[in-house]
Amino acid sequence: MMALGQGAPTVVFESGGGGGSAVQDRPAQRLVSAFARAIIYDRAGLGWSDKAKPWRSFTRRAEDLFRLLEAVRLTGPYVLVGGSFGGLMARAFAYRYPDEVAGMVLLDAAEEGQYFPTMARMRAWHEAELKTEAERAASGELRRAAEPVVQKSRAFTDEEKPWLLEIVSRPGHFLAALEELTAIDATPAQMKVAGGFGHLGDRPLIVISSDQVIGGDMAVWQQGRADAQARLAALSSNSAHITGTGLGHSIALERPSLVAAAVAAVITAVNGGPLDVAEVRRLAADPKATA
Fold it and tell me: What gap in Å lies between CA 70 and CA 72, rounded to an integer?
């Protein structure tokens, strides 16, 4: 776990699955730390975290985060930021601990009405991909491929770049991402339908969606995607749904300034102000707004 900044409510980032890492949220964390305490962490087995216990539901995994926050003496309610698979994790936390969530930002997040039936079709493909990535990490191939890209990146400091390279050198990181998929089997059927992870009442919520069309082997994920993102925005009566221009799936990595603006807007609303998303919309519409 890495913490930066001061101020309440504390903001907690939930990274994506499929080999995603908390380190990828570091640029957004740095921006958010200018106005709030911001936390990034790796779920069990990912990155430098302890090995995971397998076959646990999403809500059981959310208990790990609750215990971590308790252990470092942080108190809620929190603003949660969840990207992709991390969106389901953020909502599982809200389902398990509703009084501990003040607001939420969802970044092209998975939605249960689409995620579970699509994974039923695509799981073998994703599992094979993660096994291949673990093999590439073990051989050093993944690090060699990533190194020139990481070194050219302006989003990460010279101190942070080795963290990214260390992650892609760890086969256990990708095997832990593979293990996370067992949450699908351990989650009860009533949670695998639209709305199954609960609603947010009137808590401030911003949903940011990619405008990138998914093709190739992953094209099945495009089916029902727009409806799924709309359902996420409908989880709260105090929400905004914004689709970016030229925005891919890894939103916190691609456009951290957009994520920071969304978090700031949610915090203002948590503190009693309106959910003003004018700046969020401006940054979402600007493909050059990467800083």
Answer: 5
Residue 106, CA atoms < 13 Å, CB-side half-sphere: 32
The pTM assigned to this predicted structure is 0.95
Strand order in the sheet with 2-4: 2-4, 38-40, 11-14, 78-83, 101-107, 205-209, 239-243
Q: How far is CA 170 from the centre of its chain?
A: 20
Strand partners, 250: none
Segments in the chain forming alpha helices (H): 26-32, 58-71, 85-96, 112-139, 141-152, 161-167, 171-180, 183-186, 225-233, 251-254, 256-270, 278-284
Q: What is the pLDDT of residues 6-20, one digit of tens each?
A: 999 999 999 988 666
Indicate the pairing of strand 38-40 with strand 2-4.
antiparallel
| DSSP output for 167-188 | HTT-HHHHHHHHHHTTHHHHS-
Q: Per-residue pLDDT tens for 249-270?
A: 889 989 999 999 999 999 999 9
